[in-house]
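Record 1 of the preview.
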Amino acid sequence: MDDHKDPPIDAMDYLSGLKVVDIGDIRVARGKSRRPHSACKHRRLRYDSSERRIWCADCQRDVEGFDAFEIIAKQVGDAVAAIERREQKVLEAEAFTLRSRAAKAMDEAWRGRTMVPACPTCGHGLFPEMFARGGGTMLGRNYAEAKLKVHRERTKD
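->
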């Protein structure tokens, strides 16, 4: 089995709290281990499937199966959260890039001075003067998309 023996827990006299509990033939005393508390986070785990044992290469101690599982689950959870944060940043960057490209295309069209871009829906010209005060009339995105959908359905017929 296991040649390694954990050090005993010495019964201590505490000033407060439960010291000794007698339960029939069983006596349970509160104490402290002589082994110093390990601050090891078990970052270098090794396992042996034939012995069904998990061991930490940093502190050179056996690690309980549940503790190893919890370490791995937390690591996977952190990795998934990082991927989701990165995906959100990529989506925000793509949306910003789309707006930047659209603004650049409009700006290039207006620099020519002989032509103006046309509204893709109604075909009317879009003049810089229409946007001099910050864009003129504003519509909610959902409302504008619904209005555009209705317009496209009417022009199909």
